[in-house]
Amino acid sequence: MFDKDQKASSLKIIAGPVGLLVLLVLLFFMSVKIGSANIKNSKSLISDLEGKNKTLTAKLGTLREIENDVSDASDITSVALPQENPALVAVSQIKYLASANNTQITNLEVGKGFAKEEVSELNMGFDVSGQTSDILRFLASVKTVAPIVIVSDVSLSSLSGENIASTSVIAHWSDFPAKIPALSENIETLTKEEEKLLSEVSELVQPEFFELEAQAPAPDRDPFSY
Amino acid sequence: MSTAINLLPIEFQKKGPMFRASEILNKVLMVGYGVFVFFLLVMVGYGIYLKTQVNAKESSNKNLSSQVGALETTEQGLVLVRDRLKKISGVYAGEKVSNRLTTLQQFDSLVDSFTEINQVDINLERAQITAKASSSADLVKFMETLIDSNLYKAVDLESFVYTPKDGFTLSLNLLE
Asked: Residue A79: phi, psi to the nearest 5?
């Protein structure tokens, strides 16, 4: 009986510390598990934010670098390849070129534009008359104007001293991009090829637009004064 | 012989292997809990440090985002320029006739004084000209100019006609 009581009492003495030890081990593992998961999440978040910050810093630098030039470049390229059918401006530019090269434009026809997904096209046809060398100079200079007009077909013939070139040209336009990249997405400056092309496009002869000034109403003329 | 008598109940008896084991365990527990508390403090401290870092990065991110947002017009401009240039490049890639015209215009300026180019057919497939030379000397000069100009890689003679009235009439296919 005494032995039994002694054994139970001994177990009682050891049970407390063993229980506390088990609790310590459990707490330790739980805190390691929870703590390491939180640390991992925080580190991953920091790494993600650092990546975003790096991208944003680079983007900000790029945008500040090009801030002053991009406005002119977008104006020039938008005139070279406009958003809408450039028929009127293209005709005006062709007439200007013809006049500058001592040639005359007749039988001007403007076809129906073909809207395409990438670049839409407008076919135009006309006859050019003048000296052969002037006609050739005029035709070679068509590609130097904005909006971009490309000669697609030329048939020049001389009949009884008169040189006439039946010409087909194509003017182009295209919709503006509908969306810009996400804020966190990186952006790059123009490549060397793009810069070279931009420089070529910048040299195109820009159309001249005049704004008519509003005039104050004039008094009606007296119909009996003549 | 004297006998040690202990009248305390068994649970208050501070001797025996279990008691010693208990004492050792208690010491281990004290050290263990101390280490555990220290570990917890370190972990919480590190967590707070990381949280501070996250807050700082988030704040920096927000600041940068607002600065980039303020330059949205510039970004739109750049996207527009890239888009236009890509499409213009595509338009120019298919441009053959204008280049042929430029070459022919250069050639015409060389032969302008002694030969007349009176027929030109230029399209995507070919560049063909018909030229008139009033004398054999002009014809030779024309051919020499054509060869020396190095403007064309090859020239195919399509037709060659001589009439006393018009002189020599050449029809040539010009290959760049």
From this structure: -80, -40
